Amino acid sequence: MSKIIITKQNSKLLLSLFKDNKPFLFQTAVLPGDNSLLGNIYLAKVKDVVPAISGAFLSVSVEQTVYLPLSDCDNLLIANRKLEEADSLKQDDEIVIQISKEALKTKQPTATTKLSLTGQYCVCEYFGHGLHFSKKISPEKKQMIKEAICDCNIPDRKHFSFTVRTNAGNLTDLSPLIEEMESFIHVFNQITENYKHRTCYSCLYKPEDEIISLLKNIPLTAYDEIITDDANVYSLLTNNANHHFHAINKNIRFYQDEMLSLSKLYSIESHLKEALGKKVWLPCGGYLIIEPTEAMVVIDVNSGKAEISSKHKNDLKENYILNINIEAAKEVARQLRLRNYSGMIMVDFINMSSDENKQKLLSILDTYLKEDTVKTRLVDMTALGIVEITRKKVNKPLDIT
Question: Which one is the CATH code of 1-33+209-268: 3.30.420.60, 3.40.50.880, 3.20.20.140, 3.10.450.10?
Answer without folding.
Answer: 3.30.420.60
